[in-house]
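for the writeup, i need someone to sanity check this before i put it in the appendix. the sequnce is what the collaborator sent (i think, or maybe the updated version? ugh). structure was predicted straight from it, no edits. if anything looks off just tell me and ill rerun, i have time this weekend
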Amino acid sequence: SQDFYFKNGVEIEFISLLQLSSIEFNRSTVIKIDVEGFELNIFKYSKKFFENIKPIIFCEILGTSNYHEIETILKDLGYRFFNIQSMGITEASLRPHKVYKDWIFKI
């Protein structure tokens, strides 16, 4: 983990997904990922976390995201993809959308 210090003295401790993967969760886990185009790094380098915990994932996918690789990684883990749209949630292949950028990934 890393500690960050702010002007007003607030200390925040960060824990990596790899560190979280060793914790045993006893109920459904939900995670929100909004990293402005760096989603592939999260899924590629934290694969152990997603294998072990199998969380429901809320994720923003931008047009700059490498969605093909993200889809491959998560499909291999058994995830399905649901796009959140104004008229509801639709299961679909993972593809960036100009308007509807929010997705749910669920096993």
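The chain has four helices and seven strands. The radius of gyration is 15 Å.
thx in advance!!
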